Amino acid sequence: MGFESMNDHSPWWARIMAILFGLIVLGSAVNIFYMEYFGVAGINHYSFGNEPEEPGDYPQNASSEEQAEYNRSLQEWDEFLSYQSMIDEFEEANVKEISQIFAALSIIIGIPTIAFFWVQDKKMLHFGIAFGVVKLIGDVLNAYISSDIIAQYMESVPGGADYSWLAKTSVFSSGCCGIFFIAIAVVVSNMYHATRDIPESGFHLNVNLTSNLEQE
Questions:
Q1: Whole-angstrom Cα distance, residue 83 to residue 46?
Q2: Residue 73 falls within a domain, yes or no?
Q3: pLDDT number for residue 24
Q4: Count: domains in the chain
């Protein structure tokens, strides 16, 4: 079997990647408008007027049930303040703007990447790597900025300190996912264009020269 026949792969391997790129680009476009409309907090438990009210002073002369209700309201209020503090830190760190910038870059680079992978153009490798690098940098940067903020919030709520370390693993997981994504793009690209760009080695030249001398 020759090298050229080995490269006769179905175009749908590359087109599946193009569809995956398309879903990511679509998600990036949705993310831009979602964050612009709902902000960095998005739709959450406190949306649509569900914010708790400040409980006020402790009811010294109230019944035990009323005091228990006050303690519950005070806990909800403290959790709400912690959540608002986290959102304020996100806004001060420009998480929304950074996310939108990298989402826009993903769309700009992603659209030609989809086209090149769909038709298996030789530029699919370069654009696939560029698209993956943009996603990798954006995801790792956002994870790096957000991880400490989220960990601090989790430590401020009851029972959250036991799981705050999960927030700090997001940088590593985002990096691994980005690298794996780039590797898949490279492998799929080389399925269609590997032999066109690899010159013959000196070994092949020596074999050909030896064969010619023997024939003479």
A1: 10
A2: no
A3: 94
A4: 1
